[in-house]
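re: ur question from earlier - yeah i can do the single chain one, its not a big deal. heres the input i used so u can compare w yours
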Amino acid sequence: MSPSAVLLGSISTVVDTSELQRRAFNEAFSRHGLDWEWDRERYVAMLESNGGRDRIAEYAQSVGESVDADAVHATKSQIFQELLGSSGLQPRPGVVETIRSAHEQGLRVGLVTSTSKENVAALLDGVKGEIGAGALDVVVDSSRVERTKPDPAAYQVALGELGLSASQCVAVEDNPGGARAAEAAGVPCVAFPNENTAASDFAGTVGRVDHLDLSELASLAAGR
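and the output i got, formated as tokens:
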């Protein structure tokens, strides 16, 4: 059965923002007087879980420091949104074409993410020339759920709003925590790793791609 909706699982399934995220963390640490710098290897290891605020708190505990994780994360978010607006964002391979093809074929498209509403707005503003405001039929961000990924709540909200069952959708996720959330919600998930999750274990997904193509997503979802 062909899917009735494509659910993009994070802003980095639209634009690869992973290195911008790491840069924003490091700049936030500097602004808060913290002698921390997350190199790429360390940051990649942290991407097995979701939630920037929790990463900050857990890292502070691991190095024996006391920090206001909420304040540091708020600064990181502000920096990240500024970077999104000034970095000349380009959608990842096949994303624009997949969204266009989905709408042409009567499918709906959603963004189901653990990031903030403000980050989503900054992303969509950055790509508005290629992905218009009406391209997404449902958007679920961290403000709409009590528990973020890998909890399935965000997917459950999206399914409810679309009026679809899990088997009628296919999810696209760029990180293992997101993939686990889709799996927990019963939505077949295709891994679309970003540059910092390419070596991650996406166990439980129905396939792995390096560019999006609607027919391939449909085929992988049907063959789960």
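Residues 8 and 172 are 5 Å apart (CA to CA). not sure if urs matches, ping me
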